[in-house]
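step 4 of 6: structure.
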Amino acid sequence: KLADLQGLKAGTLKMAVVTTSKYLIPHFLGEFVKAYPAIDIVLKVANRQQIIEQLERAEYDFYVFSHPPSNFELDVIPLAANPLVPIAAESHPLARQRKIPFEQFAREPFLIREMGSGTRHAIEQHLKNAGLDLNVRMTIESNEAIKHCVMSELGVSILSRHTLALGGSEGLKELDVEHLPIRSQWYLARLAGKEMSVIASTFLDYVQAQKDRLSTLLLP
Ligand code: PGA
């Protein structure tokens, strides 16, 4: 409390975030850490299913999902848009085409994230709702590995635009395919009813104040 009064809040902020949000969340943390240099950060990064398992243990102050699970009581704040976009190698014939019919995209070998991935979950939901199918050929456990496989012309994929905008898009082209992108959204979540530390409420205030600026900065 004395530290608070001196504007030197000290302690640890614990966050558990889905892998794809690792392109976004560090940009929220950067300015926060500069403003509160005495606050330490613990950042766990894992796929959606593993972060859902962390909710069970209730050890973290905040969680970041694009599809928060419905079987937990969560308070959520929308942070930023998370469009999931179709990609191919720059050298791929589709990279030069406009208004690609979905059926044509769907004939290409498709590279998909592992079971438990939120990106995969969103793609599967979208296909199911629209009655569409893909030609899934490879399961790959990382966005970065998928990008390199797409660059190497092993197939096409659908990934969060953040993985391109902030992770580098060299050798890759976002495609113009009907029914895509998939519109989704990042959420900052906390377990409803969990007591909030001074550090956690400081971070929440910071996010509320900064989220409009940061979300447009990160995905122009
Ligand atoms: P993932 O999650 O990194 O597990 O794919 C991203 C998301 O929830 O959209």
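step 5 of 6: annotate
 - Residues 18-20, 47-48, 65-67, 113, 117-119, 122 surround 2-phosphoglycolic acid (CB under 6 Å).
 - The longest helix spans residues 198-218.
step 6 of 6: archive
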